[in-house]
Design a protein that fits this description.
The complex is a heterodimer of chains A (about 600) and B (about 425). With about 600 residues, chain A is α+β, with helices and mostly antiparallel strands. Chain A folds into 3 domains: about 110 residues, Penicillin-binding protein 2a (Domain 2); about 80 residues, 2-Layer Sandwich (Ribosomal Protein L30, Chain: A), CATH 3.30.1390.30; about 350 residues, Beta-lactamase (3-Layer(aba) Sandwich). Chain A is built from 22 helices and 20 strands. In chain A, strands 2, 3, 4, 5, 10 and 16 form a 6-stranded mixed sheet that branches. A 5-stranded antiparallel sheet of chain A has the order 12-11-20-19-18. In chain A, strands 1-8-9 form a 3-stranded antiparallel sheet. In chain A, α10 packs antiparallel against α21. Chain A is elongated, with a radius of gyration of 33 Å. Chain B is mainly alpha-helical and about 425 residues long. Chain B folds into 2 domains: about 350 residues, no CATH class; about 70 residues. Helices cover about 65% and strands about 5% of the residues of chain B. Chain B contains 16 helices and 3 strands. In chain B, strands 1-2-3 form a 3-stranded antiparallel sheet, with helices on one face. In chain B, a hairpin with a 2-residue loop joins β2 and β3. In chain B, α2 runs parallel beside α16 and α8 crosses α15. Chain B is globular. Classes of the chains: A alpha+beta (about 600), B mainly alpha (about 425). Chains A and B meet through α1 and α2 of A and α8, α13, α14 and α15 of B.
Amino acid sequence: MKDDRSIAIRLSFILIGSIFIIKLFFIQVLDENYRLAAENNVMQRLIQYPYRGLIYDRNNQLIVYNKPVYDLMVVPREVELKDTVGFCQQLGISTDEFHEKLSKAKSYSWYKPSVFLKQFSNEDFASMQDLLVDYPGFYITPRTVRAYPYHGMANALGYIGEISKSRLERDSSSYYRQGDYIGISGLESEYEELLRGKRGVKYRMVNVRGLEKGSFKAGKWDTIPQIGENLISTIDIDLQEYAETLMEGKVGSVIALEPATGEILSFVSAPSYNPNILTGRSYSEYFSVLSKDSLKPLYNRALMAQYRPGSIFKIVQALVALQEGVITENTRLRCNRSIIGCHGPHSFENLQGAITNSCNPYFVQVSRKMINQGISEDTYEDTRIGLEKWRAHVASFGFGSPVGIDLPNEKGGMVPNVSYYDNAYQSKNWKFSNIQSIAIGEGENLVVPLQMANFVAIVANRGFYIKPHLIKAIGEHHESLNEYREKHYTMVDSKYFEVAVEAMAEVVRSGTGQFRAKLPDIEVCGKTGTVQNSNTPDHSVFIAFAPKDDPKIAISVYVEQGGQGARAGAAIAGLMIEKYLNGCTNRTHMEEYVLKGEFIY
Amino acid sequence: MKRPDDIKASKLDWLTILVVVALAMAGWLNIYAVVFDDQLDQNIFDLSLNSGKQLLWFGISIMMIVLIMIMDIRFFDSFAYPIYGIIILLLVSVLVFGTVVSGSKSWFELGFIRFQPAEFAKFATALAVAKFLSKPQLKLNKLKNWALLGLIVGIPAVLIALQGDMGSALVFCAFIVVFYREGLSPLFVLIGLITVALFVLTLLTGQLYLIIGILVVASFLIALGKRTKKRISAIVAIAIVTIGVVMSVDYVVNSVMLPHQQNRVKAFINPEADPLGYGYNVTQSKIAIGSGGFLGKGFLEGTQTKFDFVPEQSTDFIFCTIGEEHGWLGSTILIVLFVILLLRIVFIAERQKSNFSRIYGYGVAGIIFFHFTVNIGMTIGLFPVIGIPLPFFSYGGSSLLAFSILIFILLKMDAHRMQVLIR
């Protein structure tokens, strides 16, 4: 019996040993989770954010750079607060906020640092540094935010911000992590992948207190951060600032570009805001102020606002009609005001005269000739054929679809087509008289200011355009994008443009109110547009380019409720051209006129 | 006739010594691995490190072993009770004069050396138990004798528990191995095991389910078997007692146990419930061991233990270092070494001619077995955390010295086993 017991005891030793060995086999050999948990314990992924690329203007002026700010980090495990209230007072937060932030950090990790308060300025940093000596568990880490030495161009530049949840879910490249900064609008968004560079990751080992214990697996998985590419903008920041000044207190847009290259010289959407306010700690505060503003400063009118083009569209009609051979430059038509109202003393003009006088009946008649060419016996069918032909011509000028600027959210405007009218009239029974207002840029036509600027560049180039763009070169080697070297020809031959150019020169030379765009030493070509509104004052539209024979600048100005095109529009365009070509303006009375902003009289 | 203390080296059980030395050396290397930091230039012999201090204790232990070897073999038999008495005195005085270290008032501070009488109470109690049980005319069917035995084991256990060192107090449960071998009815062992099992089951499944389960089983037993009055009343009585045990669990956990002990129980049931709070030790310990894989990360390459994620890593949780750096293979070798040691001790005990030596041998086996089971069991989550060291392996001078004394007294007895026949 005693022997049995001895054996029972021995067996229990072996049993326990076997249980241990089997259990260990399960957790050590079969279960991967413990290995992963161990790596997670010691491995700290240190993300090394590269500097975001800088942006320069066309004359190498720095317009966007990075400014250091400081984040207050917390390691919950190390926090020892004797005086929570005092700490909160120093930080300027409430104790509730403090506990909320701390528990958020705890839920992330007890021993890994997480952001407690974001983006202190340099000045705050100095006082903070002294303070933190008494508060273990809190650290400061530097990071950068965007900064802008010039206060203009906010809408074109856009802003960066913490990536949103929905954006993070949509990110198919899975590059981004929560808390990353990303370009949200404007150039920051469009060139995000170039500007952001490539994040580096350093894996290091830490002990339980977060102290560094060397690199993980001798840095086998580490990657070095790549600095973001610098961008060279086409913008002339001086001209840009000038344009912003001129647009102060007004609603609208000014777009100036170099016709031969499609390079945008200034790009103003008014009202605007100082881009510096959407960086740093007060981002969300300012953002909500801006987004609640009834004048919508965050709305980029230059490429999103869709307006009826008004009289400037008459030039398009003229060019299309010439190409189609339904008129010549000598075609004279009576200013038959029973067709449609007109203005000014004229009665029987040729094409140039009709453009100069902006004769409505002339262009309605021209359009009828263009659209009803008698190809089909059936008037309805003939109109349909004509409208499609017309539409194709107009579209070749960049109307009706986004022109392709290097900014997000560009709108395409609207050039009505057959199916549009079929829908509108719920039948195929419509003819030219139903749609004739498109002839003079009213009716169903919609264009965005950028398309107007592009159009005037086409006229300046006598028949082609290069997609307007804001970035002309990228990185150290100043690589340009092929997309912005390609010439897009319209369907109208170059030879037909001369008459339009002459007419536009004549508009400025001898027109009634257009003197405001007239310059003593430069021949400016322009065209007014006055877009009528039923209840509010007219929108003032002016497109122009100069000099006539070797155009260096093309410009479109759209001032909402700015009166006739010859007033706000022409004045601003003239000043811009003068400033750009001469480097300064001498016409202070004109500047005063614009700055005063009283265009309705 | 030879003099009794005339001992030949060849008579010592070298297998046991080999295993013990292997354990101590492996332990020493692991103690070094725990503190090793490749950013510092450290030497394993550096006396400011635990590994250096442990080496010092090796020396002290060897001196003590030599002392045991040259002592008269009759000393341990004759002085079993006085030794026990002295230790009890020490245990009482440590309650008065002791120094508190991590919550337990169980240390004497002598200059730069600290020593823990509780560690020495184990071999002293083993001697006293052996002395008592080996009394030739002892009648083990008398309740009084069991009560006396219970006192011999219970007094030091209670005194140690009073110091706040529950782990070392529980070690005295190990004497159940001795009692069982010497004739304690297996029924008691069974009842003990069932109580523990019921306790754990209650914690894991919840009171209500277990009570329902017991009632269902009892009803079945009554319905299926012979329905004699005696049988039914026995089943009912057993059911009532087991339900009583089940219902007492909440009370024991919430009212008898101290908060940190409650947490250890909670951590044992579900360490994931609060992995950063009470579940931290077990979670981190399992991560360290589990991350070792089959072959381990290599000597000095462990990260969990070295970077302090595992608490008490050179003492109670030393097994984590083996698990992490030497993987399943290393852990298995260590476990096999312990099993060999235990089997060898039982083998040695069984070949003793005197009852005193045999009973002492089982005491040694029981104590080492308890330490081995509980220590490794807790690091892999099979036992609640009970802070006791891994024999010969964990860092700690008192523990090493006490285990050396414990086992070398047995080896001394074994070497003289042929001589005691005369008595």
